[in-house]
Specification:
The chain is mainly beta. The chain has strands at residues 37-41, 47-54, 57-58, 60-65, 71-78, 81-89, 95-102, 105-114, 117-125, 128-129, 131-136, 142-149, 152-153, 155-160, 166-173, 176-184, 190-197, 200-201, 203-208, 214-221, 224-225, 229-232, 238-242. The protein has a 23-stranded antiparallel sheet that branches.
Length: 251
């Protein structure tokens, strides 16, 4: 009944259906009466699972154990479905995940841990990510806040360095960058401004020196440069110019 691990680092690109592959309670062996605890063992006689029956289905606390006898997962079950808190542990016995379930699917916050520290907190509604997913650096500071709506990234995402400085704001619609994007220097000065449409650069791209002076400028349509990409010195002099690619000739 061990829950599948979800890699927090890849969660920003999580599936629109995070409920897929949810852990299912192990079937009870034949024989245990209602309310009677039972356990399963492997060929070497080591306990692999402990639980309790109620009305013909597992109910209450369940415990999964690894090959070395260490607890891998503790979960609450109602009517044979995960319902309540689930805790998962790594091979060294350290806490790896705390999730909330309702009727067999994630419902509420799921938190992931590494070396005893929370690295990600993700909100679920009836098995689908919905709300702000938050990621943390080893020092506990927030490194990213990613908004989800109905299982897709949707809204304004924020990214930070490990000292807590805002590095980037990006606007998303249904898993694609769509809208204004702003990048910052750690000092807070604007580094870059751009706009995306359906995941592609659209409109003016500007990059700046920390002083606020323009460093580079170009115009894009559907991700393709359509004007010269000009690079400037801090004094405002053009130091380089990249021409846009030739447009295909009409047939």
């Amino acid at each position: 009944m061990t829950a599948d691990a979800l890699d927090p680092a890849a969660a920003a690109a999580a599936s629109a259906d995070p409920a897929a592959g949810e852990p299912a309670p192990a079937p009870a062996p034949a024989g245990p009466e209602s309310g009677e605890p039972f356990e399963t063992v492997d060929d070497a006689g080591r306990v692999t699972f402990r639980g309790r029956m109620a009305d013909g289905a597992m109910h209450g606390e369940t415990y999964d154990y690894g090959p070395r006898g260490k607890l891998q997962q503790r979960a609450r079950v109602a009517g044979g479905k995960l319902h309540g808190e689930l805790r998962r542990y790594d091979d060294d016995g350290a806490l790896a995940e705390i999730s909330q379930y309702a009727d067999g699917v994630k419902h509420g916050d799921t938190a992931f841990y590494q070396h005893g520290r929370m690295v990600a907190r993700m909100p679920f509604v009836r098995g689908v990510m919905d709300g702000d997913a938050t990621y943390f650096a080893p020092n506990g500071l927030v490194t990213a806040v990613i908004p989800y709506r109905g299982g897709k990234i949707d809204g304004q995402a924020r990214y930070y360095d490990t000292d807590g400085h805002l590095l980037r704001r990006s606007t998303w619609v249904a898993d694609q960058e769509d809208g204004p994007q702003v990048a910052y220097y750690p000092t807070g000065a604007v580094m870059e401004t751009s706009t995306y449409k359906s995941g592609l650069l659209e409109g003016e791209l500007k990059r700046f020196f920390q002083t606020g002076e323009l460093m580079q400028r170009g115009v894009y349509r559907a991700g393709v440069l359509v004007s010269p990409l000009e690079t400037y010195s801090q004094g405002g002099k053009v130091t380089a110019k990249a021409e846009p690619p030739p447009r295909p000739k009409p047939r």
